[in-house]
Amino acid sequence: MRILEQYIEVRLKYSEVADHQSFYVSLEELAETWYCTVRNAKRILDKLEDEGLIYWKSGGGRGKRSKLQFKRPLQEVIPPYFRMLVKQGAFKEAVRLIKRKGVPADIRQSCYAYMMKELSFPMINWSEPFRTLTPTMVATNTGRWFFVKGDK
Length: 152
What we know:
Elements: H1 2-13, E1 23-25, H2 27-34, H3 38-50, E2 54-57, E3 66-70, H4 74-87, H5 91-99, H6 105-119, E4 136-139, E5 145-148
Helix pairs in contact: 2-3, 4-5, 4-6
């Protein structure tokens, strides 16, 4: 899923560009964005195009800028990728993803809501012997939270 990370990275860098709007960018700028060589940037662009995330037209010649177009909005890419990270238990990476500068607030909120839902256990109805429990929060090794609701 590294290809989605690379798409999100470049999409956030050029967040002022609307979806399906073409713009010109150099391969050197893209290589700098992905912290790789120009040769690897071309490979990444080919993979992104194969996945249907972008349209890319090479600039043809040294120093010529390439044409790039984003085909998928962040609303279609970030939430599914975030859910996949959470299901894999990569909580730190998932939180880092949505805390990045440029991630729209509505995406951030929906992802946080999903994470809280995933990390909570369902409400448990306690029987009479357990009525003396007080509200407690316990963290487990898996990163899940367990809330105990008791009578005071």
